[in-house]
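Design a sequence for this backbone.
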């Protein structure tokens, strides 16, 4: 179950976390 949730919400969490973390410049815009 946790894996399924991670797969579903992974991109969303990553997108939300990128501006918060900031120093992870995987996507330089």
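Sequence:
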């Amino acid at each position: 179950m946790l894996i399924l949730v991670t797969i579903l919400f992974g991109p969303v969490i990553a997108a939300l976390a990128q501006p918060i973390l900031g120093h992870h410049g995987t996507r330089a815009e």
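The radius of gyration is 11 Å.
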